[in-house]
């Protein structure tokens, strides 16, 4: 039960659409001659299965967006491989993405107010995407695109400033759809939008998955929306993936201290007992000083933890990278128990 | 007990050439001493208009056309320029939505905090600097960071600095307009805990504005829900959350995917504008009835302490 996950074993039977292995991105800090480097993403492994939505959650600065920018080839990764149809695109397309790659992978950005050029009409954005990728830009195609994302044909003649934030984000999604991609990378697509339109965008993404089988990487810090939208949730902390699995399983039974910290920070009036500052301080300590973790029961070591499976839900392994889960599974349960309620028996048990 | 802030029948209009748009209409509420009062609603519902009206920050074309705002018995709307200067900041302070970016990038944190005391309390620079250090400590930042420039601080720290500035002169009331919208959940939680601590220590009242219902219910004592420039519900926060009376309140609560329970499809809010013959919401309103009219009805007390703008029931 507790052996490391074999990544090559596919979760859903067939081969995943995109396989990311050992993806690393370091940024140079300081002047041009500086040797100082910051590791934004450290050797990350994950799969994006076909026709599924995978959420990548974590706080600001955890490296979520850097992963998306590496995948869409806006950043050059320092190391690693990204396999699409068995081909490592970092090798075959060394400098930047080819048109063929962009036809398969598209991106929707966070800020719909900045991603559409204000001097062009909506028609221009869609026509350009179609023409660049060799598809006929007939009125019929344009109308279809607009209707798919829930807009009307007459909006084609509008300028971006005439549309609301939600409508603009729909245009950005229509532009991505114009090339009929297999994968859409969505970087916080709803965080700049008003509450009144957020659910509409989430529902649109859901529909695109269900009706067109488009895979998505949904990047967000809103855990509720990840739970609502995504089949799989990956939790990122300080450039590394620390937990992953079925979205409901990860949210309902978080294993890693960091996931629990994230979840405890979400305002939720229905949470029994409310917010517990003492427990959160402990979690924070565990997250910030991994070598001095208050959950350490002697099983921790200075070595980088490997993935351990703690459960299986909806055909997906629920894994966590934390030394706490290294030994037998009953210890994992016991540690969780001590964290929730002090259990005198557990403390006396030799490890 | 006499309320700190008492807003009665406030109406704000944005006047253009020959036509006007109502930003807020017949809004009445009061905030007691040491109370945290929340105003919730989507963009454009008028919640920020109310905050700006209370601070007397509205500029043309916005105009207060009816109603009254009283702060500890004084008529805010009748204040002159000089009176306003001491009223703002000393009695009532505001943390703006984009507060993180409201710090001056070319001055150090220490200079900006010190300015408050040299200007308002006529302190010497040295004394002002000491007070600035104490102020930073109050919001949990090392006073050593006084020499830092805003860009050297994280978003959460900048937000704390702005909150420190707002409470510097120990005002009776703090208005916060979406103070954590640009921050991620962990930082948001820390800032909120900070505000609660400060509120307990300094005893000020808070008018808290956000669209995040969960956050609001966690923090507020009482809250109002605004829609289309009008208050549609007013109640103790926990009671409102447990049992919303107005369909819009319920819709707003369901606009956020929950972290618990089954994964059910959400419908979101209706984004049609309010027009002359429709309240804009009644199209989606589950309580749509024949006696619905274009106007959002007035608030009426449905149960002790609970007010809702509902049609029917004979009270209109």
Features:
heterodimer; A: 351 residues; alpha/beta; Rossmann fold; eight-stranded mixed β-sheet; 12 strands; globular; disordered N terminus; disordered C terminus; B: 316 residues; 9 helices; 30% helix
What does this protein look like?
The complex is a heterodimer of chains A (351) and B (316). Chain A is an alpha/beta fold. Chain A has helices at 64-71, 89-92, 99-104, 122-132, 139-148, 165-177, 195-212, 223-229, 247-252, 257-265, 277-288, 329-340, 344-348, and strands spanning 18-28, 37-48, 53-57, 79-84, 87-88, 105-108, 183-187, 215-220, 232-237, 240-246, 307-313, 316-321. Chain A has a single domain (18-348), classed as P-loop containing nucleotide triphosphate hydrolases (Rossmann fold, 3-Layer(aba) Sandwich). Chain A has 13 helices and twelve strands. In chain A, helix 10 (257-265) packs across helix 11. The longest helix of chain A is centred in the middle third of the chain and has 18 residues, at 195-212. Chain A is globular, with a radius of gyration of 22 Å. In chain A, 44% of the residues are buried. Chain B is of the alpha/beta class and 316 residues long. Chain B has a single domain (5-106, 149-257, 265-308), classed as Rossmann fold (3-Layer(aba) Sandwich), CATH 3.40.50.300. Chain B has nine helices and twelve strands. Chain B has an eight-stranded mixed β-sheet, with helices on both faces. In chain B, strands 2-1-4-5 form a four-stranded antiparallel β-sheet, covered by helices on one side. In chain B, strand 11 (300-303) and strand 12 form a beta hairpin. The model of chain B is unreliable at 271-277 (pLDDT under 50). The A-B interface holds A 59-60, 164, 166, 194-200, 202-203, 221-225, 227-229, 248, 251-252, 261-270, 274-275, 277, 280 and B 42-43, 155, 183-189, 192-193, 211-212, 214-215, 217-218, 238, 241, 252, 255-260, 263, 265-271. Chain B: It comes from Streptomyces antnestii. Chain B: It holds the Pfam family ABC_tran. Chain B: Residues 7-253 form the ABC transporter domain. Chain B: One of its GO terms (molecular function) is ATP hydrolysis activity.
